[in-house]
Design goal:
85 residues, single chain, elongated, mainly alpha, 4 helices
């Protein structure tokens, strides 16, 4: 039997929500990038190459972007709330 009272606990719920956003941000672009590139007129062979470019070259650029900084701030806030509650 499962105990659903754990889902009402904010100490458990905050990391779960933070992890949900992290997983969405990590894997969704890789799923749809080839289809989006083909829809924009890029050849399928070159569109598949975008996955390796994103995986190898883009992380350094994304670390410097404002979106990445905001995402890290939200994650840090969630961690702080986790330990304060």
């Amino acid at each position: 039997m499962t105990d659903s009272s754990l889902l009402a606990n904010p100490v458990f719920l905050i990391p779960c929500v933070a992890n949900m956003f992290a997983v969405i941000g990590l894997f969704i672009p890789f799923v749809y990038i080839v289809d989006r590139a083909v829809a924009l007129g890029i050849q399928p062979e070159n569109a598949a190459f975008l996955i390796s470019v994103i995986g190898q070259c883009m992380p350094a650029c994304l670390c410097l972007s404002l979106v990445r900084c905001l995402f890290l701030c939200v994650c840090l806030l969630c961690v702080l709330l986790y330990f304060l509650l």
